[in-house]
Specification:
Collagenase (Catalytic Domain), 4-stranded mixed sheet, about 170 residues, alpha/beta, binds zinc ion
């Protein structure tokens, strides 16, 4: 039990430090810019490479979820397994999980060694955002919300592909 508390405090403390640093280095911006930054970047991404962070943030932005996580934590596989065990995660059959959400702290954990591809990251992020939007641990609830997020993500990547085609002409 002590280990659980220590781990949660570790993540919360870590997130706090990161947020403090971000605020400390941000230059004053006009209100429009800060409003836009708040809506898309108000959560912390920890342990990610710059590419992983950029990808995750752009996918979440495209999905326009009803609720954002407070933080997204990328972990090496061994640490992910350990964390899942600490939170007593039960993964139902059919849900091969390289991601999970701890609802009380609104934290999404990602197994950085096992999410396979950019597409699968978006697919499973949609599922985790579904848990957050419905505030439910039930897989059915998460999947119901995830469907519309995946559709938005797909539409956004189609638009991006079209744009690329047009600029290549
Ligand atoms: Zn789930």
């Amino acid at each position: 039990m002590k280990l659980v508390i220590a781990t949660v405090l570790f993540f919360l403390g870590f997130a706090q430090i990161c947020r403090g640093q971000t605020n400390g280095t941000t230059n004053p911006v006009n209100s429009q810019e800060s409003a836009a930054a708040f809506s898309t970047n108000s959560y912390a991404v920890l342990g990610a490479t710059p590419q992983q962070e950029a990808l995750g943030r752009s996918q979440i932005q495209a999905m326009q979820p009803d609720a954002l996580p407070l933080r997204i934590v990328f972990l090496p596989h061994w640490k992910y397994v350990d964390t899942a065990r600490i939170f007593r995660l039960h993964v139902p059959a059919g849900f091969t999980s390289a991601l999970f959400t701890h609802l009380p702290s609104r934290t999404v954990f990602i197994d950085a060694d096992r999410y396979v591809s950019d597409e699968s990251l978006g697919y499973w992020l949609a599922h985790e955002l579904g848990h957050l939007a419905t505030n439910s641990v039930k897989e059915d609830d998460a999947e119901r919300a995830a469907r519309k997020y995946r559709k938005r993500l797909e539409d956004a990547s189609k638009r991006a592909a079209l744009k690329q085609l047009q600029s290549a002409r």
